[in-house]
Amino acid sequence: MAEKIPSWPKVTIRLYDDHNAEVKIAGRSHPVNHHDPRQAAIQLVAEQAAQLGRAVKATAVEADGASWPLVIHPDGQVDAIDTDPRKGKKPIWPIVLAMAVAVVLIAGTTLYITVFSKLGEGKPQVTESPKLPELPGPNVHPDEFAPKTQPTGYSTHAGWTVDLAEDSTPAIKPDGTEVAILTTDEKVAVFDANGKVLWQDKVPKDAENPVYTTIDGKQVLAIATPDTLYYWAGGGAEAKTIELPDSAKVQFFGKSPLVLLGDESGAMVISGGELKAAPDQPRSSTILLAEGDRTLMAQYLGPLYWTQPGKQILTVNLQPPGGAGKLIQVVSASPDYVQALWTNAKNPAEEAIPAVHSTASGKMVASCGTVRNGDTDGWDWVPDPNRKFGAWGECLVNLTLTKNNTRRLPGFQPLSVSGSMLYGTISSKLYAVSPNWNTYPMNEGTTRPWGVVGKRAVLVYNSVLYALDPAK
């Protein structure tokens, strides 16, 4: 049976003395201090196995260096494997560990009541689910921002500020209630709108910028390193980790992470806390993004494809906009939407029609009218994370409307969306545009906000995050 159990995640239990041990799961260390460190370590690994829905392999290393390969099951059963009876020494790790788990809600706190019986002995133990350690908090304090450089609608007073890791950027939770950063002392920290630290955790030196995303149907905060993806559900719970294949890169263009493998050898999605290959990639298609364990792909001339482990491939044909001829190309994609260029049936040699389509049905969501061929070459698609509005180059789109939902703003180049404003430039001058297409020229030197948390605009300048109060 042991040979059928995947080798991922790599688990090592190292016993130091009668009270201390260390559990490493996929490279992440979990110190253990307990009157029975073996029991506590096995409990921790069993919880990981329960999250995966299967047994995991582990290597237990005694203080004297002796090691034992084990299989630890979600119910706490422990099997020793590959033991060599010629050594004349039996493993002192339990061969069978009976465990009953009950979940009890007490004052909103989830407690895991775990009953261990070690070779018929042992007493019930009550332990909390692993929580993040208490760490020194970052220095958070109010400050003033440079006058006449704050965005429209906000004052120069920052209700709170905090230093960021150099060259890092913050992540704003889509509902505007939290902001996450990398700190200067190698931590990820999450704040509420008033600058209160909600939770923090240590991260590796090579951690990339935090991203809010969805994994296994739940919104999480994720951070990738070259070899591991970490993600936190919040509320002080420890991170879950996924080991990445060599040379893999994590892409967050879609609603969920997409793990792109090196040498154009495909991609992987996350399902049940595990990486699974994105199946059935059609020939000459491009992998665009992930949504849960589904992967969106497209051929240059269409159609779209949704693939999912264990299910048949789904083909989505794009609906042409009014007056369109042939599909020229699928240009780009974002959560729920794909952008495509069509020929103008009346003048295909000189004109095209840019259109936004649903990735679920292929239905046309918005048409940008006719443009001259080549005019869209420099257009970027910048959508609102909450899918209410956006811009594809100079084509402004209100996604809450079903008719008359586009307007052209000649020369506009969108840069970002923050709160209810779309920011971009016209002839190098910065403008803010509202969802109903009102335009607001901004002062020279104005700093674009990263987002809005609560009622405060989040700005970054010289590796400092400023949370600016609304203007009075």
Automatic annotation (TrEMBL):
Coiled coil ranges: none
Keyword annotations from UniProtKB, A to Z: Membrane, Transmembrane, Transmembrane helix
Chain intervals for the UniProt region annotation (Disordered): 123-152
InterPro entries in the cross-refs: Quinoprotein_ADH-like_sf, WD40/YVTN_repeat-like_dom_sf
TM segment ranges: 92-115
Keyword Membrane in record: yes
Keyword match Nuclease: no
Signal peptide location: none
Name of this protein: Pyrroloquinoline-quinone binding quinoprotein
The species this protein was found in: Kribbella soli
